[in-house]
Amino acid sequence: MKKRYLVATILATALLAISCAQPKPIPPAAISEIYAMSEAEAIKQYVEVKDVSDRGDYCYVMIYIKSLPGEFTSLEDALPQAKIFTRTFTEAAVKILSRYDINKGLSVWAQLPLKEGGVTVLGHAEYDGKKYRDFELYKP
Fold first, then answer.
1. Is the pTM higher than 0.85?
2. CA 91, CA 4: separation in Å to the nearest integer?
């Protein structure tokens, strides 16, 4: 009888330790690959990856919607781009992370640099570890 309690206690302790373990960190190579996505010929004139960081249970990616040389992209023009590119970057980053055996949430935020300086946060798309969530407009 005492052996059963001992085994049950050991199993419960092991399960508790496993469930409280920190998520696997994102390796620098995966972060570099996510940064490199904005170097693809098809999108490098439209989007730039500004930040990729491991935030524990999820990965944060921030992209800038670029303006064409000599012009500034308006908010109306930037929103459709943000919708397309946040989803594209979310799907591509999830594929990159899965190659490194990492399955955690991912959030891609889009910002628009302003002519007078600063940025406007447009919104984000997400992956919660199971399913994708489409672009959601940022409301302060």
1. no
2. 47
